[in-house]
Amino acid sequence: MIQRIQRGRSDRLAARERTFDDDSHSDMDVCFQTVPNTVAFHGILETEPHVTVIDGFLAPLECSELIAKASLQRRSGVSNDLGTGSESKGRSSSTALRTPGLVRALAPLRQRLTELLGVPEARLEGSMVLCYEVGGAYRWHFDAFNLSSVRGASNTAARHGGQRLLTSIAYLNDVPEGGETAFFHARRAIAPKAGRLLVFRNAVPRTAPDGRTRFEVDRRSLHAGLPVRAGTKWIVTTFVRERPRGMEEEP
Ligand SMILES: O=C(O)CCC(=O)C(=O)O
């Protein structure tokens, strides 16, 4: 009986992962209900996927200045790093338009990320400032490009700059209730807290028969922004790419 339940659960999970992979969108509430044992996590953790949490990465004043600047530039559901483009189906948040003022305000955060992660600035995608209101959430998803799918392989962004190896999320405010970033497989949820930085790995290296190493989606990185239940949630998301901006893979 227990085995049957476990098998049923892993079948459902496999089906869900396929669904995410296809980039279609399943019912978010149903997905959220599947992590009842998720525990709140505060501190620095190394687990699978590799997840690190650092408190005090941003000073309180830096957080409030970023929120103040971004508040003036909010656009609903915009999903790319230019603050232009189409609505993101899986995310119910608004994204701030990246005006020169906001880009300047983000510079210290980006500088600190390059030092922490040991990568040049050219490997950071444009940082996005996102705001979720009550009920706002981001469905279970992967940040890495699925390069083994036809769509992923032809993705211009992926060809220029390569895979998204890491995600960093800086939380700009405390959220009274909800809004945790949850990892499905690790059963961990990181609570939003002003100044806290979360970094996790999205991709794992695989060597192909031709001897080339490519980074594939790390399936353990399946994660979501859980619904905000009270207050608002402000974050800055910055992806770290495999190669500097615009650089194509060597032939
Ligand atoms: O809002 C969150 O906590 C998660 C955001 C996220 O998953 C992302 O930007 O990829």
UniProtKB/TrEMBL annotation:
GO cellular component terms given for this protein: endoplasmic reticulum
What keywords is this UniProt entry annotated with? Answer: Dioxygenase, Iron, Metal-binding, Oxidoreductase
Sequence segments annotated as region (Disordered): 1-24, 77-97
| Cofactor(s) in the UniProt record | L-ascorbate
Domain Fe2OG dioxygenase span(s) in chain numbering: 123-242
Q: Which InterPro entries match?
A: Oxoglu/Fe-dep_dioxygenase_dom, P4HA-like, Pro_4_hyd_alph, Pro_4_hyd_alph_FE2OG_OXY
Instruction: Give GO MF terms, alphabetically.
Output: iron ion binding; L-ascorbic acid binding; procollagen-proline 4-dioxygenase activity
Q: Where is the composition biased (Basic and acidic residues)?
A: 8-24
State a single Pfam family of this protein.
Answer: 2OG-FeII_Oxy_3
Q: Which PROSITE patterns match?
A: FE2OG_OXY
Q: Which PANTHER family match?
A: PROLYL 4-HYDROXYLASE ALPHA SUBUNIT (PTHR10869), TRANSMEMBRANE PROLYL 4-HYDROXYLASE (PTHR10869:SF246)
Protein name in UniProt: Procollagen-proline dioxygenase
From what organism does this protein derive?
Chrysochromulina tobinii
